[in-house]
Amino acid sequence: MSQVIFKERKNTDSAKWDNCKAQFGEANLLPFWVADMDFEVPACVKEALQRYVDFGVFGYYKPSEGYADAFIKWEASHHGYEVEKEWIRFAPGVVPAVNWIIHILTEEGDPILIDPPVYYPFKDALVNNHRRVVESPLVRTDAGYVFDFDDFERKITEEGVKLFILCSPHNPVGRVWKPEELRRVLDICKKHGVYVISDEIHQDIVMTGHSHTPAATVGDYDEILITLTAATKTFNLAACQNSIVIIENPAIREHYDDFVKRIRINGGNAFGYIAVQSAYESGSPWLEEVLAIIEGNYHYLCKMLTEALPKVWVSELEGTYLMWIDLGGYLRPEEMKAVVQDECGLAVDYGSWFGEGENETFIRVNLATKRELIETLAERLIAALKKRA
Hints:
389 residues; alpha/beta
């Protein structure tokens, strides 16, 4: 019996399904944008939360010892990362953590480097906090995207970069970085005294034949590195607002603790701690099934699009459940909304959100849903783009 249950989420106050009007100007779009799943969480999570609800007292909560222990065991068994309990800190989400760390480690006007096309809240964090955006774009090859190491180091030295935000696995291009790639990037940052935030929230969403390597495990980078992760993407727990900050450098931990003390956010809510602990303890079988669904959806959509539309280019999906698709063989940037949204009735993340230039003919598609919806998306795109072949 399947452990993964698709849920109809329309009219459930789902941001993905019920916020299309606010985001796109039209309510009745088929949504493939926000990076959450249309699957019910593992049964173990529901059961743990139900026990807490049945107890019925929702007073001040102290996380159990089992919360950190469950995460530590997960990292060791799934990623070979031996995390010590004293390194672990709380944040309500990876994006808030990025913003907090920007305040902790940099000053207004400081240059911070990102590698577009990349998760757009990174750039938002720099702009909103009055930091200077420095970009070292990834290089697109026939096989996928790679770092431009020469440009990366040149931008660091010429611009005086203070901090680099690494996305690993990379959203939206789907790369799972190899240890030697991570090592080279981190060596450059260490050489020039650049701090690194490694956003590893998609660490568990990795396709067959690939393996996520935590940045902290490829060498001695304790002085510069902060790792962010969460059960959010792995187990569909975004509403629980619980993420994990790993800081091996005691001086940075002290700065982090001082910052959260000043803003009076000492921890999260009980529901988040309980959900995350139970997921890490008992959610592996559910995750294995979800990964098979995501990978099946990827191969299906890739095959359908590239066979029917030979000028479509798809970035190979190594990690995340987000498919990065170039429609530039058929559409100009100014045509994207009219075709994808108005003609096809689809809500997607547009490539322009992740960076300007060649990204403007891309779409990012969320694959964490049932096959029938992926089939509908394929049919609509193929029908619309064939008219323009």
